[in-house]
Amino acid sequence: MDNRNGFLDSMNRRSFLGAAAALAATSGAASALAAAKPGDGFGGVRVGCITYSYRGEIEDARGTLEALLKAGLGETEMMDGPIRRFAGLPGDVNAVPADADREAILKKCAEMRKLYNDAGVNIHVHKIPFGKSDEAIDFNFEIARALGCKGITLERSEEAAKRLAPFADKHEIWLGFHNHTNNVPIIDRHDPILDFGEYIGLNLDVGHYFAGTGGKSPIPVLEKYHDRIVNLHLKDRTVDGGNLPWGQGKTPIKEVLRLMKQEKWTFPADIELEYPVPKGSTAVAEVVRCAEYCREALA
Prior knowledge:
Blueprint: H1 13-25, H2 30-35, E1 47-50, H3 61-70, E2 75-79, H4 80-87, H5 99-118, E3 122-127, H6 134-147, E4 151-155, H7 158-171, E5 174-178, E6 200-205, H8 206-212, H9 219-225, E7 229-234, E8 236-237, E9 243-244, H10 253-263, E10 269-271, H11 283-297
Parallel strand pairs: 1-2, 1-10, 2-3, 3-4, 4-5, 5-6, 6-7, 7-10
Antiparallel strand pairs: 8-9
Helix pairs in contact: 5-6, 6-7
């Protein structure tokens, strides 16, 4: 995206770049980050971040945007917290606002989209839980459209896929089902979850896949289902251990990113910070380090 008015116009450009470079210097990457422009991607790969990465530190939309810009990221999977606070969403996912309130909420979601787009950041999916009624489900898809989302992510469930697929088809907005270690996508035969609807896809967590399959590469999953992948979650894990700082685990993050570049796949690859934040650091700084890891892999 080339339109960088709005939010960035309210910031001093020199101070923004200086702050970004200072943060990157903690990982030895000052020059690379200072030169980065949000929205450009890394070597043609749409690297982003799920805002769950900032949990416990940032919960509002503007603070989240600033954190993404510090990492030079132009893509995000938005958790419900910042959306609720900005747009005034009810806390109960089963609550469907009256028409006037509904219109006001959707207008605020469109404002949030513009705030991010003007800064060069695309909200490609959101992760707001679904309510039970048809009206609540429709409203969730309407929020996605107002935010400019291609899809909505949720935890892998065939029951949910069956229930929600007709709504996804109607709204033409994808559902990206996220895997953990115990429910990874099926690779040795067709994955039946994809048969429930045209807009049923995968939110492939490559770290959980690696750990849950005893160390198998997620690359065959990308090769088989790349046209049904909504977005990736990137994290570094070992088979027996938990999440580790990137480069200390065994998940083939660099190989995944390089394959995406080679094949020109356009689904986003989102950083998910799950390893413990080191003493003296912050989640914001650690996402910057993860972003630089991606940038170096794609250089």
